[in-house]
Design a protein that fits this description.
11 helices; 308 residues; Rossmann fold; globular; alpha/beta
């Protein structure tokens, strides 16, 4: 998530903007993911390309000194944050890119909705079908920051891009439909890096709302953590290094309560679902994070659902 841009464009890659949206809390995690995507983009064996990511990192004072190339990290891939964790985000980006593109190709969906869009640049990066519309739902200051950076780069969207400036805790459904969204048409939905931070009841409500707004042929991808106690991994290298190196205590941001069975709820509503570990895709692509001892990624699951 990001910041409000006060009175002007962001010019170049190093101009800083007022970052009221990404200066702290969950907002800063959007910059973490952007830095990870930048590092992934410049790997020799890159899984995903996001040429815009490094510009977000440099534009926000909170992240201006973070690395955007692996060579800027003294211990490289051995670094739990900028090595293994960043590679996780690179793999996640690739898997969700592929799923969205395959879904719209298979179903004919031309509406794509990014829930908690943050610094997602899929409207600009991916090769969408003609007539596609990408709706980006997030707080106004987040979208303003992103828009300011992209305007400064003269970035061109590959689909119609419709920012929907609303907090997901507010009436985002009305904001979305007022922006042109058609619940009678199939939709590809994405909740990437979102549900970790929501109370269980909010996740249940969000999934139910997506179901209600989804016509036959719709698709949904989201990420969850399925483990009985997040604090089991409080001293994992991944969490400790993230706190020590960039001051983001992820465990303080995550909702701690047991998670609902959202995949089961969707199945009961007539969706077909599949649930995977990230390591399934590491094996598929031949690169990415592998399981390790005291692994903060052990409970991560990527869920893919299609409505018939």
């Amino acid at each position: 998530m990001s910041t409000h841009v006060d009175g002007g464009n962001v010019v170049g890659a190093t101009h800083h903007v007022n970052d009221t949206g990404v200066a702290s809390g969950v907002g800063t995690t959007a910059l973490l993911v952007a830095a990870a995507r930048a590092i992934e983009t410049h790997r020799h064996d890159s899984l995903a390309q996001d040429v815009f990511a490094e510009h977000f990192v440099r534009a926000a004072p909170a992240s201006a000194g973070w690395p955007t190339r692996l060579r800027q990290v003294p211990d490289g891939d051995a670094n739990p944050l900028w090595g293994r964790f960043a590679r996780y985000f690179g793999l996640r980006t690739r898997v969700l890119d592929d799923y969205l593109l395959q879904s719209v190709q298979a179903t004919g969906a031309r509406q794509i909705v990014l829930l908690g869009a943050g610094l997602d640049t899929r409207a600009f990066r991916l090769d969408w079908q003609p007539g596609s519309v990408v709706y980006e739902i997030d707080r106004a200051e987040v979208l303003a920051f992103k828009h300011g950076v992209l305007d400064g780069l003269s970035a061109t969207a590959q689909a119609a891009r419709v920012p929907v400036p609303v907090d997901l805790r507010a009436d985002w459904v009305t904001a979305l439909t007022d922006s042109g969204f058609d619940p009678a048409a199939p939709t590809a939905w994405l909740a990437e890096g979102l549900l970790f931070y929501l109370p269980a009841a909010a996740e249940t409500s969000l999934i139910a709302t997506v179901d209600r707004l989804s016509a036959s042929g719709s698709a949904l991808a989201y990420e969850v953590k399925l483990e009985p106690d997040l604090l089991t991994y409080r001293d994992s290298p991944l969490y400790l290094s993230t706190t020590a190196q960039i001051g983001i205590d992820l465990l303080a941001l995550f909702a701690k309560e047991p998670r609902p069975d959202s995949a089961g709820a969707l199945t009961n509503k007539g969706w077909s679902t599949s649930t995977h570990t990230p390591f399934d895709f590491t094996h598929h692509h031949g690169r990415g994070p592998l399981p390790e001892e005291n692994d903060a990624l052990a409970g991560n699951r990527w869920v893919f659902a299609n409505k018939h």
